[in-house]
Amino acid sequence: MTLGVILAGGLATRMGGGDKGLRLLGDRPLIGHVIDRLAPQCAGLAINANGDADRWRDFGLPVLADDMPDRPGPLAGVLAGMDWAAAQGAQAIVTAAADTPFCPSDLVARLMAHAGPSGLCLAASPDETGRMQRHPTFGLWPVALRHDLRAALAGGLRKIVLWTDRHDGGVAVFDSLPHDPFFNVNTPEDMARATALLDGRA
After folding, report:
1. Binding-site residue set for GTP
2. Cα–Cα–Cα angle for 128, 132, 134, rounded to 5 degrees
3. Mean model confidence pLDDT for the chain
4. What is the number of H-type helices and E-type strands within the chain?
5. What residues are designated binding site?
6. Most buried residue, 38, 101, 120, 193, by CB count within 10 Å?
7. In the chain, domain spans
8. Is residue 13's pLDDT more than 50?
9. How far apart, in Å, do the first and last CA atoms of the chain sit?
10. Which pLDDT band, with edges at 50, 70 and 90, does 10 fall under?
11. DSSP class of residue 192?
């Protein structure tokens, strides 16, 4: 069984602060678009976010706070998701970022198909120049590695790819045409582009 965890813990500094995932794209919050795409691919979903969980209540999903001190970044959210999934009897989680409204509808299947020997896999896509870019917040994470991840975080590790490379994580490559499915909304200009994509104008 694979569960999905949407990472919504970013500070949204380039959007003026607050929860990016709750900003409207069309008639839905950004995270709502991610839920619509990820939910059919998983046995269940949760949201990783810190602070008052009540602000996510409209989505009816469990809210998982980081249990590592000093907000060490997305890996802490991955760990929270792995711990939650282990308690549900799941073997793995797939993560997605809350500000990526066009994430792939075959994300889970492709990650599972390209997982490394450890069961880890990250998504990747080519940028505008054709250079391959990994997307560390989109990954397949076996819960059996959660204790190793907790120890790595406690030891100061923060960069996701350093940890996945340590465990020979696989890479699932996604096409960037007609647009990169991992396009994320960081700025008001990005929101304008996302609106155009949603409306079919880009």
Report:
1. 7-9, 20, 48, 66, 99
2. 115
3. 92
4. 6, 9
5. 7-9, 20, 48, 66, 99
6. 101
7. 2-199
8. no
9. 37
10. low
11. H
Contact indicator for 45, 38 with CB cutoff of 8 Å = yes
Binding residues for Mg(2+): 99
pLDDT of residue 69: 75
DSSP characters for 72-131?
A: --HHHHHHHHHHHHHHTT-SEEEEEETT-TT--TTHHHHHHHT--TTS-EEEEEE-TTS-
Q: How many angstroms separate the CA atoms of 95 and 169, rounded?
A: 15
Please spell the DSSP secondary structure of 9-27, one letter per residue: ----GGGTSS-GGGSEETT
For residue 15, pLDDT over 50 is answered with no
| Cα dist from 124 to 32, 139, 158, 187, 200, whole Å | 23, 10, 19, 22, 24
Residue-wise pLDDT for 83-98, tens only, equals 999 999 999 999 999 9
CATH 3.90.550.10 for domain 2-199, yes or no, is: yes
pLDDT at position 146 is 97
What does the chain come to in residues?
Answer: 202
Distances (CA, A) of 23 to 105, 110, 160, 175, 195: 22, 29, 26, 27, 12
- What is the rounded radius of gyration, in angstroms, for the C-alpha atoms of the chain? 16
Rounded distance, CA 96 to CA 74, Å?
A: 11
Whole-angstrom CA distances from 59 to 32, 39, 53, 62 are 8, 12, 11, 9
DSSP-assigned letter for residue 41? G
